[in-house]
Input
Amino acid sequence: MPKTKKYMVIVESPAKAKTIGKYLGSSFFVHSSMGHVRDLPEKKLSVDIENNFTPEYKIIPSRKKLVSELIVDSKKVDAVYLASDLDREGEAIAWHLSQALEIPDKKALRVTFNEITKDAILEAFNHPGPINMPKVNAQQARRILDRLVGYQISPLLWKKIAKGLSAGRVQSVAVRLIVEREKEIKEFKPQEYWKIAAELKIFPGDVQITVDVETFTALLQKFDSENVEVKNEQQAKDIVNELQKAEYLVANVKKQTKRNNAPPPFTTSLLQQQASTRLQFSAKKTMLIAQQLYEGIDIGKEGSVGLITYMRTDSFHISEQALTSCRKLITDKYGKDYIPEKPNVHASNKKGTQGAHEAVRPTSVEYTPESVKDFLTKDQYRLYELIWNRFVASQMKPALYAVTEVEISAGRYTFKARGRELLFDGHTRVSGHEMEKDEQILPTLDKDQKLELMELSPTQHFTQPPPRFTEASLVKTLEKMGIGRPSTYAAIISTIQDRGYVKQEKRAFYATELGTLVTEKLIEHFPKIMDVKFTSHMEDELDKIEDGKIVWLDVLKEFYEPFKNDLERAVGEMKSVKGTPEESTKVCTVCGQPMVIRWGKHGKFLGCSAFPKCKSTLPLDEKGEPAAPETSDQKCEKCGSAMVIKTSRHGKFLACSAYPNCKNTKSLTGETTKVEPTNEKCEKCGSPMVIRFSKKGRFMGCSAYPKCRNIKSLPTGVKCPKEGCGGDLIQRRSKKGGIFFGCSKYPECDHIAKELPDTTTDTVKEE
Output
């Protein structure tokens, strides 16, 4: 009897593995790599510049055990299917896996799919291919370029400005956009202007006219056929006085039917923009939830199902099968009047579009938002509904509007009124009707018809500066300028905030003082790196590498020589801001010495002039004054004073406002920073274990520290809810000081939760 062949499948995540596993037979064993298994080590450049920019890849420390297990398992099978995502990053993961596991070329089979459905998976596994090395090389080129810039400019910033700063080939250009917008806003000088609106109705003597609208509004446009510019109140009053005496007649009526075409389906950037505008999701949150919808959601009897196609794409392309299904649903659900004669084709308007990829769409329109709502979290449902509606709307007929434009004479002055009325809702039945500014319905009007003036309303206005970037407008601008690619926007936006270069208030981005300083230094000394056109050019070069049109090493060599020259000049010419501290009028409350203004990685701050004997510091606000501490509702249990929120290198904490007389501190959760006793004994030395506090949260450590350094996670008593995991949830702390609960088996299990699940119920649903 012939031996049954066995196959290994490697994907990036456990969720994806679970969904794919149910479509493959018992001969297939699906494993998760938990993302990348090899990368450039963090502690050094890890690129041999002198040896053709050879990258020095190493197994990621947290993946060593996993890689060892995969190596053993890979030798037991007849073939290894590398089923990572279909973009550059996914292709690189497949290649790194093949290298790390030392899989022979004949045994390494690459499969890609745009959606995780049974048909798509079986089709992909029936037609495997080799690893796409041009795509891998494009990813390598990007990784090395970013490493060269980041690891060689950042130390210069540490030396000249403050430790902990960073520069990035793309992130720094994104910061520049925000900094320059901030400068435009500050330098903007508003100009006064006035609008004059007339409220009109049909003249009562025109009895032959059927009045279907009481009044309508027209705006003053011209004087003697020239555009009117009303610059001040007095001019407005003079015009109003003249208009009060004028006779109002309909001078011209223009009627037409206008089409509002169906919107295209979502690309990555359009999805991020719409999710930001409509759902108030950050780009990072949007991509995280989209990843969950793509990899698979358990929808009851069907098990885990991928609900959307791959979410990193810049293409509007839709498969024939998806188009057919969508058109049938529209006919059945909304009627044949909503179906165009031929499917709508939305041409891509961007260079470098990956035509083989599809737009972001539901894997099946039969999975309506309502039909899967009970299986989704609130945010998953909202994003899925947005994607489903957009896709269905993209294949519907245009909306039709009756548009009427009326010119009204008032002596030597001309007013204009515009009316719009929906005739056929078309795609707006699903996508929603968007009101136009000053939209109104006009009465039936004819040329030379008399109108009665009801009221004239002069209103003062001022020209406005350009608006601050929101996530939606920043993503749109990055895409328009060719800075980065849609798959990188979320990371870019997250990074520039984490670095303290920009801050977000009421969804708008503000450049910080630190961000402005770093940007100015980089523009002065690295003009090419900070040039938008050059950054866009490099993205085009990476696209050409992927297409196999140019050699990746040639791109690196062309880039590095001028960059190296700029770097050498900057080392000698960039002026340091660490020199003599600025004087201030403030006195240290700890030792009584004068305070001085210094630079740190978060911008300017007040520090004691007696440093390092006295390490007292105070943050500064935007006006250069000591920032008022954040208040809390807690009282100090030692002296009764109010507790305030302060920030250290470990994150935010509570401190007594009576400092230095009272030095009591707590964590934000109200726990003291002193050790807490436990009943446990150290298994290494027998000393009592105590509860300690670190920037990563509470943990259990040996009381004999530093002689004994035994530590272990503090158990919560709650098991990880991820199916088949078996780990425990433990308390951790994020870089920003927030507390969350993660699985003790990380990185093998990446489950996290903001709160501990309710263990009194059988099921857990996070929102």
Observations:
- The longest helix spans residues 133-160.
